[in-house]
Amino acid sequence: MKKIYLPLLLFAGAISAGVMSSCNKDFLEKPKGGAVTVDTIFHTQMQAQYAVAEMYKWCIPSGFVLTESADCREDALTDNVYLTLPGAAWVGGNYNYQYYLSGTMTPAGTIDRGPTALGRGDAPSFNGWYKAIRKANLVIKNIDAVTDATPQWISDVKGQALFCRAMAHYSAFRMFGGIPIVTAVLAGDGKISIPRSSVQSVVDSIVTWCDQAAVLLPATRGSVDYGRVTSLAALALKARILLYAASPLYNTPSEMKSLIAGARFGDGRDTVLCYATYDKERWKKAADAAKAVIDAAPAAGVSLYNTGKPTTTVNTDTYAGLGDYEAVCNNVYGTTGAYGNPEMILVNTFNQKDPDKSQWNEWGFYNTSKIRMNQWGAKNNVPIEFLQMYEKTDGTKWTATPSGKDFKAYFEGLNLDPRAYQCLAYAGQRWNSARTFVTYYKGSGDVPLSYSQGALCDDTNAGDATGSAIETTKFVARVDNMNDNHFAWPVFRLAEFYLSYAEAINEYSGANGDATSYLNLIRARAGMPAKTPASTADFRTAIQNERSVEFAFENKRYDDLHRWLTAQTVMNQTFHGFAVTASTNGVTPKPTNPFLNWVTISYGTRVFPAKYYYVPFPLDQISMLYLGGKGWDGQNPGW
After folding, report:
1. pLDDT tens digits for 463-516?
2. How far apart are CA 101 and CA 86, in angstroms?
3. Alpha-carbon gap, residue 142 to 39, rounded angstroms
4. Angstrom distance (rounded) from CA 293 to CA 300
5. Rounded to whole angstroms, how far apart are CA atoms 184 and 196?
6. 530 phi and psi, to 5 degrees?
7. CA distance 205 to 163
8. How far is the C-alpha of 621 from the C-alpha of 123, rounded, in Å?
């Protein structure tokens, strides 16, 4: 398998010489000097491949925690994950996690950490996105100069670069709103001012680049090129940006304007934050784009992964034992040794098994979960408020019982949506043969038959002494001797566009049969009963819940809460967890595995100011006064 994301030594040396490097001071400045020229890099196909590899490394996102010690899942910024404070503050240092949760984020310390590619080096927040854009623009500008490549190869690479430019712009847009659009390799000789563009301009540009890329790219690729973009990936990015553009954050109905008032200027500057008026037709464009992905999927060899096995076989550690939902994110090699699974449209093939890491610095393992490294590490606790979004298997809701005497029996007895049990680990569970009884519990006070604190309960570095009972283990190797090679980060998978289509159709024409059908195809794969919401509002509630559980821990929650304008409701509250303590519960002789008595505990109150809907630009960029216009420095409202 060709791992196109990896930097090659020759290319790394060429880049360090200057021609392909990004800016030294800000994203508009081109570095000067350097012995290596553009002609050197783009002379032969072999040399040009290095530029393509570097472009992928910077532009294709990954949600995996990689080599940074102060790094965590983006989901920690939402109700998906809670890292116990204050002890685990360092784990989310790259996101300024503790300040974000308390409502005290600043332009000097925001959640924007720039591209998360391996080896991103000194790429600072915001500037890093433009380093990625520069990589793509250099390829677009110079690929025709390659002397020994076929026209077909050059055309294909242009399509890949157009997609990468679109992806990098999208990645910045989703946080900041309207951003500068950069389509040229900037000269950087002196001050060059490129102000923020309107939401409409950014969205239209991304859509145009995706359309252009889709024409140039092939529908399918062989396994040797697994991870390269296809025409379907370009359609997928187009569908995603159009869904976001149609959503209330940008396309705000009059009845929702009060929800976002604190993050708007109330004048002409708002064009960089939203469309001037609500237009229902944007939902139609989003629906059509999502349906285009669905319709093009069969020719691309893409289909919903559905073997008819909705639940994981209990007490098995093999790939064959996985339920379909767990298999979706574990299936790189598949059941027959072939790469990929049919649901994946585009993946970032780099996983947490980084050969460049020392054993001590395997932060992806340490910070993604506690169970993966069997003691040391940060527990990615899941708040009860999010757990309650998982319905019972009969489709009904549930409310947490505040205390009890056998947590394993209680949690399994809830008979939750099978997706919950396929991406969570919980106290007392047999997670796999290596971990057996999950020891998240605090020590027992029973005398004389006490139990010591569980090995997975506390680590002074991560600061979790609560005995919290549940953490996410999605993308944590459980089967096949804990083999991380089963993982690849899903940039796009087909299920997203089933639910995007259903959401957009409902907003445009109501809860009709087509919308309901695609909602229920996802529920059926999960082993959940069908829903038939009668009203647009009821269907909106159903589809938002469905996206929340289907894409839990896949870094979609942050974007969804923002675009729906529900973040203020969801995030401005006190979160809770289950805390468990070992006990014999009076049973003699002492059981080998303790009973786990539980109580609910507070994870603290989070604060989400309205201004959080848009991330602030760094002060060094604001001070250069190129982002805004006359009498305006370009900063987002409230910052």
Report:
1. 678 999 999 999 999 998 888 878 889 999 999 999 999 999 999 999 999 999
2. 12
3. 8
4. 10
5. 16
6. -70, 155
7. 11
8. 14
